Amino acid sequence: FRIDYIMNEAEKNISERNLMLRHGGIIRIKIDWDCNLDRNIKLCKPEYSFARLDVPFHEKPFSRGFNFRYASHWKRNKKHFRTLTKAFGLRLVIAVSGKAGKFNFIKLTLNTGSLVGLFGLATFVCDIVLLHLSKNSSTYRNFVFEIVHLRTRATSSVKVSKKFVQKHADKYPNFNSNIEAELSCETLDNSPRSSRKTVTMGAVTFMNPIQSAC
């Protein structure tokens, strides 16, 4: 790039450009790379942008343009001399930034798995696959669900609770009479029912028995 092109891009005002050539100025040159490595490397080209960093002259800044001082020393006739020079000019600040990326199937699967686990969909998806798409779905279903007949559910529950309390007779001394009273009050319907009617229930947990009366 030529100085004339850089100044035209950084400053559009002609009078300001002339003052910059006289009193100096600061111009930033930014080089930005954005490359897709899945495509041809020849297509990866940078983008250039130019901007003025010093304060414009029409705003009457405290320090105008850009300048710096340097000293030159020499010796003549056994005497030391020094010349202090104040130089004006253009200072170019070059900033380079960029990014590049390429498709990676492993990272895609890891990010997808993390997203699924984050929203709690992993358990739901696994249950769907094991219950409906797996060859051993019947085995998995037997471990997950319990099939209970309605006619024998009430009687079996009372028998199990009675066995539980018999093992802890010291804690529940009056529970046997309560069980006999509940069995005498229980009336089951003798109308014919389908033996195939089942219901899915979870595990049964027995807490402290409560005395009940008919």
Within CATH, the superfamily of the largest domain carries the name atp-gated p2x4 ion channel domain
Per CATH, the class of the largest domain reads Mainly Beta
- From the spread of the alpha carbons, the general shape counts as rod-shaped
Order of helices and strands: HHEEEEEHHHEHHE
Radius of gyration, whole Å: 45 Å
> In terms of quaternary structure, what is this?
single chain
Domain count: 3
Strand order of the largest sheet: 2-1-5
Measured between the Cα atoms of the first and last residue, the distance is 102 Å
The major pleated sheet works out as: 3 strands, mixed
List how many beta strands DSSP finds. Answer: 7
Please characterize this protein's 3D structure.
The chain has 7 helices and 7 strands, in the order ααβββββαααβααβ. It has helices spanning 3-10, 14-23, 105-118, 122-133, 137-144, 150-167, 175-185; strands at residues 25-36, 47-52, 67-76, 79-88, 90-101, 146-149, 198-201. Mean pLDDT is 75; it is low at 186-214. The chain folds into 3 domains: 3-103, atp-gated p2x4 ion channel domain (atp-gated p2x4 ion channel fold, Sandwich); 104-134, no CATH class; 145-214, no CATH class. It is 38% helix and 27% strand. Strands 2-1-5 form a 3-stranded mixed beta sheet. The chain has a two-stranded antiparallel sheet with strand order 3-4. A two-stranded antiparallel ribbon has the order 6-7. It is an alpha+beta fold and 214 residues long.
